[in-house]
Write a structure and sequence with these properties.
This protein is an alpha+beta fold. The protein is built from five helices and five strands, in the order ααααββαβββ. The protein has a three-stranded antiparallel β-sheet with strand order 3-5-4. Strands 1-2 form a two-stranded antiparallel ribbon. The longest helix has 16 residues, at 19-34. The radius of gyration is 14 Å and the shape is globular.
Length: 145
């Protein structure tokens, strides 16, 4: 599977119902991790590996075929990306980023109207909510990870 296909599948799986900006935001987070100048993701990406970032253990629910001991039907292996997913993956791989997202390295769906101010713990601070997801930029503490 190419990097573009892998990213297109992840975009569809993680944010397929979040509209163009929601999907672009998830793609931006993946690519921010790939190009992180330091910290854990810089080590994981080993100089720019999209595959290493996407398959890093415990990062994206969509990469797991089982969740909580149960089969996860919404996983990247079951995704069939449509043209929009391919286009957004290409946009991100070519350097496209959402401006209001900053250097966000994390996102999650709080299943609430409120986003926590820090995530995870104190290595990320809230920057923006797009659709159902909250996005977080790294603090200086992240670069010590």
């Amino acid at each position: 599977m190419s990097d573009q296909e892998l990213l297109a599948r992840l975009i569809q799986c993680e944010a397929g119902g979040e509209g163009d900006n929601g999907m672009r935001a998830v793609a931006s987070v993946v690519m921010n991790r790939v190009r992180a100048p330091g910290g854990e993701y810089a080590r994981v990406s080993q100089g720019g590996s999209v595959r290493n970032i996407i398959f890093q253990r415990g990062q994206f629910t969509c990469v797991s075929e089982t969740v909580g001991g149960q089969y996860n039907p919404q996983n990247i292996y079951n995704m069939r990306p449509e043209q929009i997913h391919w286009d957004i993956a290409e946009w991100a791989l070519l350097g496209g980023r959402l401006i209001n997202l900053g250097r966000a390295l994390w996102f999650y769906n709080p299943f609430s109207v409120f986003c926590r101010s820090n995530f995870p713990s104190n290595v990320g601070y809230f920057v923006v909510r797009i659709g159902d997801h909250c996005f977080y930029n790294p603090t200086d503490a992240y670069f010590q990870t």
